[in-house]
Amino acid sequence: WRQSSYAGDAIITAVGLHEGLWMSCAAQSTGQVQCRLHDSLLSLEVHIQTCRALMVISLLLGFFGIIVSVVGMKCTKVGEEDPVTKSRIAVAGGVLFVLSGLCTLAAVSLYATQVTYEFFRERTIPINARYEFGSALFVGWGAASLSLLGGSLLCCSCPAKERRGQQYRRQPQPSTARDYV
């Protein structure tokens, strides 16, 4: 989620440090990577604990959103056969996806805010020993955007009020033979 900064005059490229929600890694210039899990949950900073919780909640909401959305699809035979009920189930899946995207967006943005704050706050630490955004933050922003977009599209699948409960029937066409006489 964050990586060591390569800014400044004295660039040290022998070791790259990467930190995430679950572990810290050091990558050598030879290609060797050494990782270690964070030692204790209670010794972690508050923003990391909050981001962990939000990401786990986001994953659970996304998982349940997938299940509910599959049940609400018109092409599946699971659940009700009524199209109105099916569309309401699909909307519920869309709401779960939107909530999942919001949790992801909140977690990634909170972590990015903390990285930015620490980067500019520490005046005594050399600039190449600070951390900047890692690639996981950008992946998280992209995933949150796609989840919000997909959930919004599912929420729009509910039929209009005047069409709810009505079946489409073919109306008999009036005879137009009298018009030509």
Can you give a write-up of this model?
The structure is a single chain. The protein is α+β, with helices and mostly antiparallel strands and 181 residues long. The chain has a domain at 41-157: Up-down Bundle (Butyryl-CoA Dehydrogenase, subunit A, domain 3), CATH 1.20.140. The protein contains 3 helices and 5 strands. It has helices spanning 46-72, 83-121, 135-155, and strands spanning 2-4, 15-19, 23-28, 33-37, 131-133. The chain has a 5-stranded antiparallel β-sheet with strand order 4-3-2-1-5. Strand 2 (15-19) and strand 3 form a beta hairpin. Helix 1 packs antiparallel against helix 2 and helix 2 (83-121) runs antiparallel to helix 3 (135-155). The longest helix has 39 residues, at 83-121. The protein is elongated and about 90 Å long. It starts with a strand and ends in a 26-residue tail after the last helix. InterPro entries: Claudin, Claudin_CS, PMP22/EMP/MP20/Claudin. Belongs to the claudin family. It is found in: Cell junction, Tight junction; Cell membrane. Pfam families: PMP22_Claudin. It comes from Notiomystis cincta.
Quick overview:
The protein is built from three helices and five strands. It is α+β, with helices and mostly antiparallel strands and 181 residues long.
Describe the structure using short key phrases:
single chain; 181 residues; alpha+beta; Butyryl-CoA Dehydrogenase, subunit A, domain 3; 5-stranded antiparallel sheet
Question: Count the strands?
Answer: 5
Q: Which class best fits the helix and strand makeup?
A: alpha+beta
Order of helices and strands: EEEEHHEH
**What best-fitting shape do the alpha-carbon axes yield?**
elongated
Residues in helix, %: 40-55%
Task: Give the terminus-to-terminus CA distance.
Answer: 80 Å
**Top-tier CATH class of one domain:** Mainly Alpha
Biggest sheet: strand arrangement: 4-3-2-1-5
Taking Cα atoms only, what radius of gyration do you get, to the nearest Å? 26 Å
Strand-residue proportion: 5-15%
Biggest pleated-sheet summary: 5 strands, antiparallel
CATH topology of one domain: Butyryl-CoA Dehydrogenase, subunit A, domain 3
Mean pLDDT: 82
**Poorly predicted sequence stretches spanning 5 or more consecutive residues:** none
Give the count of helical stretches. Answer: 3
- What is the CATH architecture annotation of one domain? Up-down Bundle
Function: Claudins function as major constituents of the tight junction complexes that regulate the permeability of epithelia.
Keywords: Cell junction, Cell membrane, Membrane, Tight junction, Transmembrane, Transmembrane helix
Subcellular location: Cell junction, Tight junction; Cell membrane
Family: Belongs to the claudin family.
